[in-house]
Design a protein that fits this description.
Blueprint (H helix, E strand, L loop, with lengths): L3 E4 L8 E5 L2 E4 L20 H4 L2 H4 L9 E2 L8 E2 L2 H19 L4 E5 L5 H15 L4 E3 L6 H11 L17 E5 L3 H4 L4 H9 L3 E5 L5 H4 L3 E3 L6 H14 L5 H7 E2 L1 H9 L3 H8 L3 H12 L4 E5 L1 H4 L4 H14 L9 E4 L18 E2 L3 E2 L3 H11 L13 H7 L8 E5 L3 H4 L3 H9 L3 E6 L11 E4 L8 E4 L4 E5 L12 H11 L10 H12 L11 H7 L2 E2 L25 E2 L18 E6 L15 H6 L4 E4 L1 H6 L7 E5 L4 E8 L7 E5 L13 E4 L6 E2 L3 E7 L1
Parallel strand pairs: 6-7, 6-16, 8-9, 8-12, 9-10, 11-22, 12-13, 16-17, 17-18, 23-27, 24-26
Antiparallel strand pairs: 1-2, 2-3, 4-5, 4-18, 14-15, 19-20, 20-21, 23-30, 25-26, 25-30, 28-29
The protein binds iron/sulfur cluster (SF4).
The site of iron/sulfur cluster has 14 residues, from α1.
Length: 693
């Protein structure tokens, strides 16, 4: 049997793979000109991709439905009918007693477009609840909110990834691609070989920062001030593009007063970045014929995330970058389908095609496709953190259905989330491994995983790809679409809930038609023939849109919005009791909550446990020895992990990866303070104290 061309289960690069029984290899259909083939991964896989096959045979794979008779009883195998009947019966009972909104749904940025779409439809049509959100709220929402505000549309990268190589200067704020998506570095290498320059903004000297021409080692939580400071310098050094600003933007006049307050010496005091380095960064950007400004989670996961991304967009607009071929502003999406997952309706405020749920025309269009009355569609629901914190509270949801997410490890202030899950009448988790969240469920539904089912994902470029089934699934396992169809039937939901990915995709195409993320011209056949199609693609004769905003932005007047934003600092600053900053992130060998990668032997061998990265000078002051257990305490609680010394981190900051469960969970410490616009929590900075454990 020849291997099937498909894509990796993990990050948003969605590297191409050839998968057969027991084999994985990079795809070899890579044209040198960047058209077709595995463009995003450049024909490479990282260690996570190479070892993904082990997931298919993980010894603790969930293969039958599990259910517990009551909260203190153990999970026991049951039939699918017993599991689905119990869920449907409990949903009916809870909704009769407490109203439709008492049942909530939580999705994931790793779900295929078809699943994300069907989950949104299931919540609104079968459950008639407004309360659906997903873990992408933790990941992508601030960049999305800022791009929507400035450009009228959010597509992670506005240009194909191959444009990276052609950029004379790249500014990457808060991204560590050398560890999170290593094949991306090939594009940076190609850029360097052309003479291009790379600037990295990061509190840590990460492997990505080490390969940069310029590293701005910013104090955690001060990226916004730095971006405003760079714009100040761009203005004073005469580097802004006045003709572009006049022709393609509005609001630049109003920003000048704000930016006047970000003179270099003040910004150095706030950010810790020396003035000469700021000047060099601005010159590298201002002198470049083509430049890209990119943000990632380091700049975005803050209570000021939307405004921070806006500050970088303002800088890009002042330099005349967005909407020019080979230049622009973009964000690096993290999760496998982080882009598509935020377009088709699993977000609390959204309908398919990136439509807003409170837009009457959007509601009419989608209701027509779904065969219901627009008046029967619920309005916006609670965002992810608010939803999780409302579980089991008076007036809050009493049942939660989770698909493709592990909030016990990945949500901020995770101990509180555990308490809220325990307060539910019903917790249902659909997953293919017994994650830390599944272990707490009343009903666990065993689902198919990446290489066992077909569906589309949209990678970080906005390119829609087909992830094809390559191996058979265990006999009793069902796909999420089958599960939703089974529940919708039991709940006598109106309309059709197909379990076939191709049928669901056709419905998604119709529902997205005319929306910002218009997939109506994309078919499975085209994706295969063209190796991906970029949205928007409003007709089968349309070529797709590799580069957006070339003629106009997606705002009513076609102009981008320059929005003044002020530095406000972290929601929780250091003080005498909690004198050290904690920042969190990923390591090379693991992905997100680690529910998948902690089950792969080679990845566990490479990175077996959590750690606290600490500067040796700080460790000496605190009498902490390398390799010893360190207790890290924040206002939310405490975590314990081994000390790992590094001179790559600032003296006032420690770093913990967030992939581990139990006492080493970084999210026992993190601050659930939310960005007021995107509702994204502040994962990237909180105040802690350290002591020997
Ligand atoms: Fe590519 Fe990301 Fe998979 Fe690594 S984890 S192989 S970078 S898609």
């Amino acid at each position: 049997m020849s291997p099937t061309p498909t894509h990796c289960p993990y990050c948003a690069l969605q590297c191409g793979m050839l998968v057969g029984p027991g084999t994985i290899a990079p795809r070899d259909d890579i044209p040198a000109n960047g058209g077709g083939g595995d463009v995003s991964g450049g024909g490479a896989l990282c260690q996570k991709g190479w070892t993904a096959g082990e997931l298919l045979a993980t010894p603790d794979r969930l293969t039958v439905p599990l259910m517990r008779a009551h909260r203190d009883a153990p999970l026991q195998p049951v039939t699918w009918d017993a599991a689905l009947d119990r869920i449907a019966g409990e949903i009916r009972r809870i909704q009769r007693a407490y109203g439709n909104e008492a049942v909530a749904v939580f999705g994931g940025g790793g779900l295929t477009n078809e699943k994300a779409y069907q989950l949104g439809k299931f919540a609104r049509v079968a459950l008639r609840t407004p309360n659906i959100d997903y873990n992408g709220r933790f990941c992508m929402s601030s960049a999305a909110a800022a791009q929507n505000r400035a450009f009228g549309m959010d597509r992670g990268l506005p240009v194909p990834i191959t444009d990276i190589a052609a950029a004379d200067t790249i500014l990457l704020a808060g991204g560590n691609v050398a560890e999170t998506m290593p094949p991306f570095v090939r594009h940076l290498t190609a850029q360097r070989e052309r003479g291009g320059r790379l600037i990295v903004i990061d509190p840590r000297e990460t492997p990505t920062a080490r390969r940069a021409d310029l590293h701005l080692q910013v104090t955690p939580g001060t990226d916004l001030a730095l971006a405003n400071g760079l714009l100040h310098l761009a203005i004073t050094e005469g580097l802004i593009d006045k003709a572009y600003l006049d022709e393609r933007t509005t609001g630049f006049g109003a920003i000048r007063t704000v930016i006047n307050g970000y003179w270099p010496e003040r910004v150095e005091r706030i950010t810790g970045v020396p003035v000469p380095k700021m000047r060099e960064a601005v010159r590298l950007l201002g002198d470049a014929a083509n430049a890209l400004i990119l943000t990632a989670r380091g700049a975005e996961q803050h209570a000021t995330g939307t405004d921070t991304v806006t500050a970088f967009i303002n800088l890009a607009l002042a330099l005349g970058l967005p909407g020019r071929p080979g230049s622009g502003f973009g964000c690096l999406t993290g999760q496998g389908n982080g882009q598509g997952g935020r377009e088709h309706g699993q977000k609390a405020d959204q309908l398919p095609g990136y439509r807003k749920i409170d837009d009457p025309a959007a509601r009419e269009h989608v209701a027509r496709v779904w065969g219901i009355d627009a008046g029967d569609l619920p309005g916006p629901g609670l965002s992810a953190t608010e939803l999780l914190n409302a579980l089991g509270m008076p007036g809050g949801p009493r049942a939660l259905l989770i698909f493709g997410s592990n909030p016990v490890v990945s949500a901020p202030d995770a101990a509180t989330i555990e308490e809220r899950l325990a307060a539910l009448d019903l917790l249902v988790v659909a997953d293919f491994v017994p994650s830390e969240t599944a272990a707490r469920a009343d009903v666990v539904l065993p689902t198919a995983q990446w290489a066992e089912e077909t569906g589309t994902i949209t990678n970080l470029e906005g390119r829609v790809l087909l992830r094809r089934a390559a191996v058979p699934r265990p006999p009793q396992v069902r796909g999420d679409l089958e599960i939703l169809a089974g529940l919708a039937g039991r709940l006598e939901a109106p309309g059709r809930f197909s379990a076939e990915p191709a049928e669901v995709f056709d419905e998604l195409r119709a529902a997205s038609a005319g929306g910002l993320a218009d997939y109506s011209g994309i078919t499975y056949e085209r994706i295969v023939a063209e190796t991906g199609v970029f949205w928007p693609c409003p007709g089968e004769g349309h070529p797709g849109t590799p580069r957006v905003f070339l003629d106009r932005f997606a705002t009513p007047d076609g102009r981008a919005r320059v929005v003044p934003v002020e530095h406000r600092g972290p929601a929780e600053d250091i003080d005498a009791d909690y004198p050290i900053y904690l920042t969190t992130g990923r390591v090379l060998a693991h992905y997100q909550s680690g529910a998948q990668t902690r089950r792969v032997r080679a990845l566990l061998d490479a990175s077996p446990e959590a750690f606290v990265e600490i500067h040796p000078d700080l460790a000496e002051r605190l009498e902490i020895e390398e390799g010893s257990d360190v207790r890290v305490t924040s206002r939310r609680g405490g975590a314990v992990a081994k000390a790992r010394f590094s001179t790559a981190i600032r003296h006032d900051t420690v770093f913990m990866p967030f992939h581990w469960a139990g006492a080493a969970r970084a999210n026992l410490l993190t601050n659930p303070a939310l960005d007021p616009t995107s509702r994204m929590p502040e994962f990237k900075v909180c105040a802690v104290r350290l002591e020997k454990s």
